[in-house]
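Our working data are protein records whose layout never changes between entries. Getting from the letters to the tokens is the skill we practise here. To make this concrete, we reproduce a full record directly below:
***
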Amino acid sequence: MNLNQIFTNQRTGNNPHTKASRTDFQRDFDRIIFSSAFRRLQNKTQVFPLPGSVFVHNRLTHSLEVSSVGRSLGSIIGEFISENFRNELTEDSSSFYLHNLGNVIAAACLCHDVGNPAFGHSGEDAIASYFERNENDLKSKFNDKEWADLVNFEGNANAIRVLAHQQQGKDEGGLQLTFATLASIAKYPCEAIAKKKGIIHRKKFGFFQNEKDTFLEIAKATHLISESEEPHIFKRHPFVWLVEAADDICYNIIDMEDAHRLGIVSTADCENLFFELVKSESSDTKRIKDKLASISNDNERISYLRAKVINALINKSIETYKQHFETILQGNLEHALLDMYKSENTALQEIEKFSIAKIYNHKAVVEIENAGYNVMYELLDHFIPSVLKSGDQRKSYDKMALKLLPIQFLYEQGTDYEKVLGVIDFVSGMTDNYATDLYRKIKGIDIGMTV
């Protein structure tokens, strides 16, 4: 890939470029911050049930922290590219890498989870399994590629739709972000029908059929390497690896800190795991021990070590990215940056094993996943059968159900696929609380007036 051609300030919606005090990529960041899709992340589960008195991360705070890490990664790699490839770069390209790559990665990190439904991964599973479990009734209404989108529903693909799709009555191009930012969140740049386990850029899929033309525009403008045209498969954009690394760094470490605050993980276990990782990458452990000795508050001790761990993982990710930079540009890297490091670092392996055993399988986490799955499944079942009926086939209960769908999600003149995507837009965009409240109301568990 040509470093002068993999970024652009072209936006969805084809609006003319306007002059502003901010760069186009800073404007991306700001547009995301002020979007309703981003604000709704404050009430979407990260791992643990949203708390009462103990603060844990939700999708919004997680995304803000990922964005902070991503800006560091992007800024340092931008300096590396600007310095080491200066003879290949145009003046504009050199300025972009030196001053704006950090903004692109920060913006992409900020919106990398906006396509995730309520209740974490169980929400994704509920949407996909709704179609699997109703295959006999539904599959004939869609072509093979559309059906693959539905039975493999994926938050990454949904993010492209949330950010770029024109809803009923709204402006063209969604948030109208630059193609550079959108390309940076495309971890799996292929159609659903092309997904294949064991291949990093095809492990899941990156766009729905409804957004395929938009994604092909993004791919063309940022010069993604095409692997296949039928079905469409592209190699990852070089910036994706930095967004993925920022996300991996944060969730690997922050989930442990949250578990400690909730009393699920002891201070001793958390401290030992974090310290072993820091020790594996630092020769100055005496200074760290001395600092810990001066801190008596348990939460503060863990916060201090968490910062040290994140710094160590940022440095290691940068080192790995630089080491494999040519392979990344060719689209041939086969493992995530942090996975490559994890394979050689036993301390990070231990954190992962501990997290799976003590955190991700904790009773409270399993309970919210089960509850969330059922809530999301039942909401889909309330709307989809009704929306797929023609007007003259709808009974009074179908019409009442559809009155609960906001107008921007109703595509009455569209195909069955477009109608179903409208329902998925509505349900997947819900916060945990809103989904739960609506579920309780339509099931008759809560009856009363809501203004």
The longest strand covers residues 226-229. Residues 24-187 form a domain with the Hypothetical protein af1432 fold (CATH 1.10.3210.10). The chain has three domains: 24-187, 240-360, 364-442.
